[in-house]
Amino acid sequence: MNQNSSKKITIKTLLEILFVSTRLGLTSFGGPTAHLGYFHEEYVRRRKWMDEKSYAELVALCQFLPGPASSQVGIGIGVIRGGVLGGIISFLGFTMPSVIVLILFALALQGFDVGDAGWIHGLKVVAVAVVAHAILGMAKNLAPDLIRKAMILLALAVALLWQTAFSQITIILFAAILGFFIYKQEKGSDESISKFPISKWFGATCLALFFGLLIFLPILREVTKLEWVAMFDSVYRAGSLVFGGGHVVLPLLENEFVPNGWVSEEAFLAGYGVTQAVPGPLFTFAAYLGAIMNGWLGGLVATVAIFLPAFLLVFGTLPFWNLLRKNNKIKGAFIGVNAAVVGILIAAFYDPIFSTTILSAVDFVFAAILFSMLQYWKLSPWLIVLTGIIGGAILQFITI
User: Where are its TM segments located (predicted)?
Assistant: First the structure.
């Protein structure tokens, strides 16, 4: 795949990874799709760390997995260049600039009362439009037939009517079993991905840890009743269940942080708006939420929790990707999981995002305008955020 994978990894190589990834972390605006374009330009065309086919294979793998696709691609490129340590360094360079900015913003915001600000309500309406747009795209891609649409409906109903710490993981497991049997004849891919410098033993350990944490963190949360454990569990599950990019993690995080009283709804949406304005992955929003709860240490812990599933899945699946993508039954299980995740997201979108934001016909019209700007006019998310802030302030002034 890459000649560097067989060479001894040096300090110079690791520093080079850190330098390049940090520069991308400071300049990569525009969301996951734009990030993949920046990566291609820097790593494939300019530095030639990997060829076109290898990059396409890595992107396909990361799109297949839950989690932040662009961050996972960055981790994978770091692994190719510098092994497991290279993957960690690549992640740190790309992610830490926005993490630092968001933690500092959270610490600064704690001294202000933003509860009645019109621009905050505008950001809440933006969230309705952005998440609706993301979920609509996911449903179209992940549920093209009636069976998967029915699975979405079932997951939606269970997620809304049975709200416990175990409901999401139960829905996911049940959907995986259904998909395993219903879509077991789904054709796998015949293409082979090139080898990565990770052993199958290490990969299996990472996968076992991923599923182990997903199952046992909710149990530990119920047993200990500790706020730190509850926060880590909530953020870890959000990072484990998201397909479709950072915008989709918003309802999962809000459903955990706001009802539990960890973060006010106003502070939640203020941080979401700022996250749209900084470079790097949108999953760094978790750093802001952790910092609001427990200062800078909480921000760092939340960052670890949201990105840990991405690391475990990338490290865990790389050695087995050829086998997984050719196994029809395994692919069927993932098909079922994808559909169930859409249902879980729709449930979280309804409550609390939509139910606590759209309080009048004016709110609904404003949300429809913002949604149309995204869906039909294809405007950038930061323009939608700016429109929401200005519109919310204007509407507050008009209604006074």
Answer: 84-107, 119-139, 151-181, 201-223, 235-253, 296-321, 333-350, 356-374, 381-399
Tokens of 175: 């959907």
What is the chain's length?
A: 400
Query: In this structure, are residues 211 and 240 in contact, taking their beta carbons and an 8 Å threshold?
Result: no
The answer to whether 197 touches 76, Cβ cutoff 8 Å, is no
Which SS3 state, helix, strand or coil, does residue 279 take?
A: coil
pTM, 2 dp: 0.73
Alpha-carbon gap, residue 230 to 220, rounded angstroms: 8
Q: Under a CB-based contact definition with an 8 Å cutoff, are residues 61 and 191 in contact?
A: no
Residue boundaries of the structural domains of the chain: 118-399
Give the tokens for residue 374.
């995204």
Higher-confidence residue: 158 or 194? 158
Residue 359 structure tokens? 């309080």
How many Cα neighbours within 13 Å face the side chain of 366?
28
DSSP track, 40-103:
IIIIIIIS-SS-HHHHHHHHHHHHHSSS-HHHHHHHHHHHHHHHHHHHHHHHHHHHHHHHHHHH
End-to-end CA distance of the chain: 63
Structural tokens at position 36: 């993949």
Q: How far apart are CA 93 and CA 130, in angstroms?
A: 27
pLDDT at 93 (0 to 100)? 95
Tell me the average pLDDT across 56-83.
83
Instruction: Choose among 254, 209, 216, 220: nearest CA to 235.
Output: 254
Q: Let me know: does 42 contact 20? Beta carbons within 8 Å.
A: yes
Q: Where are the alpha helices (DSSP H) in the chain?
A: 11-27, 32-39, 52-64, 69-109, 118-142, 146-161, 167-182, 200-224, 227-241, 249-257, 265-277, 285-317, 321-326, 328-348, 355-357, 361-375, 381-399
Separation of alpha carbons 269 and 242, rounded Å: 19
Q: How far is CA 132 from CA 158, 189, 247, 353, in A?
A: 20, 31, 10, 10
The residue type found at 86 is G
Hey, what are 3's tokens?
């000649």
Q: Tokens at residue 291, please? A: 């910092």
